[in-house]
Design brief:
The chain is an alpha/beta fold. It contains 13 helices and nine strands. The structure holds NADP nicotinamide-adenine-dinucleotide phosphate. NADP nicotinamide-adenine-dinucleotide phosphate (NAP) binds near residues 18, 84, 87, 241 and 245.
Length: about 300
């Protein structure tokens, strides 16, 4: 009930979605269901994607360009791969006004904030950089999910020039969609996500390639069980999106690869020396940390 009255207060006339894929389309569906917006205009790189979004009822109107999706909108969501965010800012900046709320959903934040400051100039205050910790290993409008954001964290990485009024509007939108919002610096965000998201994805990709390069790969894979399935689920993720994330957060990711290599070498050294005490202690430390982390997650 409290959410409903908040939603009514923050109703928008028109939402412009740039990038009608998984994240953008799920946001559109959730905004519509929450009654937060009257009309949704969408644009995607391929006209066929935008047409599909219209056909599936995700958007109400197709736009022929990013600029057209912004025209007449009082809220805009940029949901394109992170490497396309700067060119999107360039394409829309002529129509941004101080009372328009612009957000992104990019998985990296230092590069996005740098682009916003470089391209948007004095209009940067309307932009609230956001990363919803929600998603799937499948992409595209056909996988849009009205419940994708429900109960999830959204991280804001505001800049010094971000308007306080826009920040609180952004917070009320995500809260009305059932999210918990927290803020941090773009650098702290990218360091944390290099560790808990970017490296795990890279390891899942590397695992599949490491097995795939062996001549008995198919035989081995035919025997794999649920542990392998859990560990490699994210290796099925979208190549363009993950390429962009790895490049955008290259420095932090390389630091995590370095730390990981040292840990792996520790396991290797224990095996080479048949040092059961060290090997078991390393496994026990990992197991204890995983159990504790899981308990914290479930108590939140
Ligand atoms: P997606 O399903 O592949 O959707 C991306 C959409 O962006 C596609 O519709 C694509 O259009 C469109 N696009 C690409 N370049 C464009 C451009 N220059 N102008 C306009 N549209 C463009 O990907 P997604 O999973 O929604 O990811 C979108 C963003 O969310 C990324 O920045 C990603 O880092 C972030 N994110 C993703 C997840 C996740 O788990 N998926 C989680 C958190 C954050 P076409 O269909 O025409 O190619």
């Amino acid at each position: 009930m409290a959410l409903f009255s908040k939603a009514k207060k923050t109703q928008f006339e028109q939402l412009g979605i740039i990038g009608c894929g998984l994240m953008g389309s799920s946001f559109a569906l959730a905004m519509k269901r929450a009654g937060l917006v009257k009309r949704i205009v969408g644009y995607s790189k391929s006209p066929s994607t935008t047409a599909k979004a219209l056909q599936l009822g995700v958007i109400d109107v197709e736009a022929a360009s990013a600029l057209q999706a912004v025209s007449g909108s009082d809220i805009v969501l940029i949901a394109v791969p992170v490497a396309a965010i700067e060119s999107t800012f360039k394409a829309i900046k002529h129509l941004i006004t101080p009372d328009m709320l612009i957000m992104d959903v990019g998985s990296t934040k230092t590069d996005v904030v740098d682009s916003a400051q470089r391209v948007l100039g004095s209009l940067v205050g309307s932009f609230v950089p956001a990363h919803p910790i929600a998603g799937k290993e499948v992409s595209g409008v056909e996988n849009a999910d009205v419940n994708l954001y429900n109960g999830r964290q959204v991280i804001f990485t505001p800049m010094g020039r971000t308007l306080t009024a826009q920040l609180s509007r952004a917070e009320s939108v995500w809260t009305a969609l059932g999210c918990n919002v927290q803020s941090m610096s773009p650098e702290a965000h990218d360091a944390a996500f290099a560790a808990v998201s970017h490296l795990p994805h890279l390891l899942a990709f590397a695992m599949m390639n490491s097995i795939g390069a062996q001549k008995n790969a198919d035989d081995f894979l035919s025997l794999a069980g649920s542990g392998f399935r859990d560990f490699t689920r994210i290796a099925a993720s979208d190549p363009e999106m993950w390429h962009d994330i790895f490049i955008a957060n290259r420095t932090q990711l390389l630091a995590q690869i370095d730390t990981f290599k040292q840990t792996l070498q520790g396991f290797e050294a224990s095996l080479l020396a048949s040092d059961s005490i060290k090997l078991e202690a390393a496994i026990a430390a990992a197991s204890k940390r995983r159990v504790q982390w899981h308990l914290t997650q479930n108590s939140e």
